[in-house]
Design brief:
102 residues; mainly alpha; 2 domains
Length: 102
Amino acid sequence: MATKAELEKELAALKQELEQRRAADVAAALSSDAPRDHNGDETDDDALGLKKVLKEHGMDAESIESLGGTLLEELKALQKERPLTMVLAAFALGLVVGRVSK
């Protein structure tokens, strides 16, 4: 088993390594030529990728909003046509959320 002095020495080395990595990340972020949005902030690469994929599939913000409304209408219709299915789906969703949140 390691002694307290050994653990403290290792902790100090890890803290120093963490600070060096943070400094390197900050330096890399400042020197990168990342695109900037209208506020001067760097844009998120994932958001740009998502926009590109949506555009390739012919989707835009307006069509996504209409899909949300259509989804709600379909769920309401399904609730009226098959109430037992909705109860079972809600139960299954509750189980999944309960398991994930533990």
